[in-house]
Amino acid sequence: MSIITISRGSYSSGKEVAEKVAACLHYDCVSRDILLEASDRYEVDEIKLVRAIHDAPSILERRGRKKETYIAYIRSALVSRVRSDNIVYHGLAGHLLLRGIPHVLKVRIIADLERRSAMEAQREGITLEKARSAIIADDEQRRKWTQSLYGVDPWNSSLYDLVVKVDRLSIADAVDIVCDAAKREAFKTTSASQRKMEDLVTACTVKAALVEEFPEVMVSSEYGNVIIHSTSGERHAHKIRKAAKALEATVAGINNMEVHVEGGAPAGAV
Amino acid sequence: MTIIAISSDSYGMGREIGEKAAKRLGYSYLDRELLKDIAKCSGIPEGKLLKALEKTPSALGMSAKDQAIYLAHIEQSVIAEFLKDNVVCCGLAAHLYVCGVSHVLKVRVLSNPEVIGKELAPGKSLSKEAVDKLISRNENARKRWSVKAFSLDETDPSNYDMVISLNKIEMQEAVKSIAGAAGYKKFKAMSYSLKCLKDEEIAAKAKTILFPRFPDAQVRANGPTVVVFTKGVKREKQKKALMIKEMLGKIPEVNFVEVHVVNDILREAAESLR
């Protein structure tokens, strides 16, 4: 009973590992289908969501905060999907979007650049040189995306519980290692960790509902007690309170909802 | 028949895991205790060998030449131990100089930030931000050291087969994973991988002989043939090549030495201006 996020670069065999881990543990395996769910739920073009989670925001986009809106939609769809547990997610940024949940095993699958380039060259029918440049550019885009939105480097091993290099270790070996880790006590769902997950679902749903109109708000939830943190002061507070009141009736799992306009948001706020 | 090279952001943690993995697999265990033996054989004080493993050369500290000599002695002794096979090694930078040997399982273990914070600032109670800063500074220092000494980034996960974070994974579980991975077929010693290791040992021996005189030399061994690349001005090329051949001729396993002296453009330019 756990959730496994598999972070991977293109052509690093992470998809195969994720699918085999899911089959081995009889878990569901999800990836970009989350984007479809988010697209349906929030009525946004899927292509906009794909760009939001793949391309690093430009200077103009950072000002407009549209990308953050789309990411809030994706996060809300993702947490709603994984709350029922026993799932392998190998889409983008799973380890960051599910931060703070104890029963999430965060794995990164890496592979040698030459091996990845050879795979891309073969699949796309391009030269090795072009394939290598494309992979380096894609990696750089991922690095920029993560750094601009979360301030961390995706290549930093401390973001993951396990990093496995598929090279001398085969895909089957990597699957064994990940399955073995997932069975460890630390990644079993407990009532406390499930409670945290439910709170994350609530916070993400509220955030997704508010983010378009109030992009600056941060939302935290503890035992269903939701706090909306706003930095825009009293100016917008009454509008946020009004929107929050409407949400209280529609979003499940809310015990109480407050709007705070002073003081910063806590570390776990979304 | 496997070798496990463990790297860690905390030597204490790496040692504990290494000892436990060795015990579990019935392998011999190697750590910085080996420096005592190296010091006895080479006549280099143990403290200097330890410093070479920890500090980046600087104008006020250890010179790059001295570090290269000390590391070559460590490399030679560690590889000699590796040739006995079934070894777990920690804290001797083995993951950085046995990269081309296929039966070496390279693992990096990342400690819990609290543990490493206590190790880096003993007796101090630091905030989470201060610990993060300290860890980041330590990581950058290790990165600088490894790039300078072996042209490889020690903190880069692509230099390892596996990286395990002890944030949530218990130490015993990490030991179990390492022991399990060591059993995979790819890490079994084969005649070719043993030959590669033997070549590395000969190259390390050659380095210990050459570095006091030619610290910039790059050495490669292929069976009994040793290839050396070094820099020099035109007029001293032949003399240098002869000297290197004579020095390496003393190694019993070597029967052919190939020397390539590349033009030292900067030195030539400086001399022509005199």
SSE blueprint:
The complex is a heterodimer of chains A (270) and B (274).
Chain A: E1 3-8, H1 14-25, E2 28-30, H2 33-42, H3 46-54, H4 59-64, H5 66-82, E3 87-89, H6 94-97, E4 104-110, H7 113-124, H8 128-150, E5 162-165, H9 171-182, H10 191-210, E6 218-222, E7 225-229, H11 234-250, E8 256-260
Parallel strand pairs in A: 1-3, 1-4, 2-3, 4-5, 7-8
Antiparallel strand pairs in A: 6-7
Helix pairs in contact in A: 1-9, 2-5, 3-5, 5-10, 7-8
Chain B: E1 3-8, H1 11-25, E2 28-30, H2 34-42, H3 46-54, H4 64-82, E3 87-90, H5 94-97, E4 104-110, H6 113-120, H7 128-150, E5 162-165, H8 171-182, H9 191-210, E6 218-222, E7 225-232, H10 237-248, E8 256-263, H11 265-273
Parallel strand pairs in B: 1-3, 1-4, 2-3, 4-5, 7-8
Antiparallel strand pairs in B: 6-7
Helix pairs in contact in B: 1-8, 2-4, 3-4, 4-9, 6-7
Unreliable segments of 5+ consecutive residues of chain A: none
Reported for the largest beta sheet of chain A, the result is:
5 strands, parallel
Order of helical and strand elements of chain A: EHEHHHHEHEHHEHHEEHE
Most extensive interface: A-B, 27 and 25 residues
Helicity level of chain B? 40-55%
Oligomerization = heterodimer
Radius of gyration of chain B: 20 Å
The biggest sheet of chain B, with number of strands, parallel, antiparallel or mixed sense and barrel status, is: 5 strands, parallel
The gross shape of chain B turns out to be globular
Chain-averaged pLDDT of chain A: 85
Content of β-strand of chain A: 5-15%
Distance between the amino and carboxyl termini of chain A: 25 Å
If helices are DSSP runs of H or I spanning 4 or more residues, what is the number of helices of chain A? Answer: 11
Q: What Rg of chain A do the Cα atoms give? A: 19 Å
* Percentage of residues assigned to helices of chain A: 40-55%
- Give the strand order of the largest sheet of chain A, numbering strands 1, 2, ... along the chain: 2-3-1-4-5
Mean pLDDT of chain B: 90
Please state roughly what percent of the residues of chain B sit in beta strands, choosing from under 5%, 5-15%, 15-25%, 25-35%, 35-45% or over 45%: 15-25%
Placed side by side, the strands forming the largest sheet of chain B appear as 2-3-1-4-5
Number of separate helices of chain B: 11
